[in-house]
Amino acid sequence: MKALIFDLDGTLIDSVYPHALAWQETLHGIDMIVPAWEIHRYIGISGRLLVRALGRARGRSFEDGEIEQLETQHDALFREYAPLQVPLPGAAELLKFLREAGVSYGIATTGKRKEIQAALDALQVGNDCVVVDGSSTDKAKPEPDLFTACRRRLRVESSNCLVVGDAVWDVHAARRAGILAVGVLTGGVGEQELSNAGAMRVYRDAGEVLRRIDELGLEL
Q1: Ordered mean pLDDT values, 10 residues apiece, the chain (220 residues)
Q2: pTM exceeds 0.90, yes or no
Q3: 16-81 CATH choice from 3.90.950.10, 1.10.150.240, 3.50.50.60, 3.40.50.720
Q4: Could you write out the DSSP letters of every residue in 158-191?
C-alpha cells in the first residue's frame, strides 16, 4: 500500500456530535422534530441527502433552495457548537508519522473548505496536503466520487491505497471506488456495523491505527 485516504469528521476530528446537534436544532426550527440518534446515523453524507432522507421518513419533501437555507443555518450553528476543532486521540500523531515516513495521504470530506479549515489547522495539515472537500464534486458519500478524486490527486491506483473512516458511508463509498477500507470507532458507529459494511479491520481510534500501522501493509 502506498497511500491512505482519511475521512475527517469522526475519524480525525471530534465533530460528529456537534454536527448532529446543529442539524437537530436546524430541523427543529422548521418544526421537524428528529431525535439526535437518528441524525447521527446520517452524519457523513451531504446535508442535501441528510435532509431529504429524514424528511422522506416523515412525509416531507424539500426544494433545493430550502435545503440550501437549512445547510446555511446548520453551518452557522455548527460553528457555535464546535468553536474548537479538537483532534481525536492519536490523529495528529498519525499524520505526523506518515509525513515523516514519506507515506502519501489525503483527506476526503463532505464538508466545505470554510467549514473544515479550523480542523485542518488543528491537525497541522499544511497546504501541500491533498484535501478534497464537498465543493470538489456534486456527489457526496456514499457515492465514491470524493475518494476517487482524492486517489487521483495522490496519483495512486485503487489497489494501492486504503480509506480510513468512521461511518458506514465511508466504507460504502470506498468499496464503490474499488478501495479497501479500515474503520475507527470514534464516530460512534459500532465495530460490528462497520465490519458488516465491509471494513477489513476496525480500530478504536487513529492512535490505535498508528500503534498497529504494520498491519496495513504500507510501504514504510
Answers
A1: 96 95 97 97 92 97 96 92 87 97 96 88 92 86 95 97 97 97 97 98 98 93
A2: yes
A3: 1.10.150.240
A4: GGGEEEEESSHHHHHHHHHTT-EEEEESTTS--H
